[in-house]
Amino acid sequence: YEAETYALLEEQLEGLYMPLDRTMYVNKGISGNELEATLAHELVHALQDQHFGLGSRMKYSVGASDALGALHALAEGDATSTMLDELIVIQRGEDFLSSHTAAELPDQDPEDLLAGENQGRKGGRLRRTPRFLSVSLLAPYADGLRFVHELRRRGGWKSVNEAWGRPPISTEQLLHIEKYDNNERPMTVPE
Predict the structure, then answer these.
(1) Which end of the chain is more exposed for a tag (fewer CB within 10 A), N or C?
(2) What is the largest CA-CA distance in the chain?
(3) Could you give phi then psi for residue 60, rounded to 5 degrees?
(4) 94: Cβ–Cβ under 8 A, 6 or more apart, which residues?
(5) What is the pLDDT of residues 137-188, one digit of tens each?
(6) Which positions ≥6 away from 75 have C-beta within 8 Å?
(7) What region does 186 belong to: left with phi over 0, alpha with psi -120 to 50, or beta?
């Protein structure tokens, strides 16, 4: 399991921001639009760390893994939405972005993304990986993106920034934004 997870991450990751040493790492094999999109995504993580304490908030604590997963999805959704806006600028130009944003794109589930990921050089291992593992890798991006886009549709980036002040505390809140709106608390399940 561990070996397959690391191999999958190695194939899929183009960039990585490490809050521990505040360093961004980018795959030396990418260039052009792929590099621009990756830089946009990872720079958002650096800004999240700077403004919202991403590194200190992403630390594991016993009994809080669901809340940590929801926060991780917020971080990835925020960065992915920005990355998609950057891709719109690259492909269509700044003028197009002023009237069309990533938040207008149709929402996709991790399963839908997985179906679209089975292409080119990045799809090999993903196709061969057990489904539960590949879907769990994509879920923070897809579920976080859906959450962030709903916030953007409601109140733009201001609403996303406000969510960092009150992030979803469970994946249930992340997946059902009305539960986030109502601040519905998760049930504690004894271990």
Answers:
(1) C
(2) 53
(3) -70, 140
(4) none
(5) 888 999 999 999 999 999 999 999 999 999 999 999 999 999 999 999 988 7
(6) 45, 48, 54, 58, 140, 144
(7) beta
